[in-house]
Amino acid sequence: MFVFNMKILFVCSRNKWRSRTAETIFKNNGHHQIQSAGTEKSARIRITQNMINWADTIFVMESKHKKRILDNFEVNPKNTNLEVLDIPDEYQYMDNDLVEILEIKLSDVFERT
Known about the structure:
alpha/beta, Rossmann fold, 4-stranded parallel β-sheet, 4 helices
């Protein structure tokens, strides 16, 4: 089911390649608000409790990111959906294969209307 105006947060480790690519390719879709962040201290943009509170859905690249979020922040499962995309850290920013994987995995969320 396609939902308009979701607030979506993409998360990886350093917010340099995977989550940043996801934000870049989906941010101008006209249907959702998009942000990205990283879980590590060295992240380009580090995840905060305010970001988690803002998001309707958080897509993390790996299970370790979900664990870090659940261990360090308050996530209300009634208000925020937390999903693992299972995309390993082997792609650079805007890598064609990464873009294709994200588009396929998130096709239900970002279907064209």
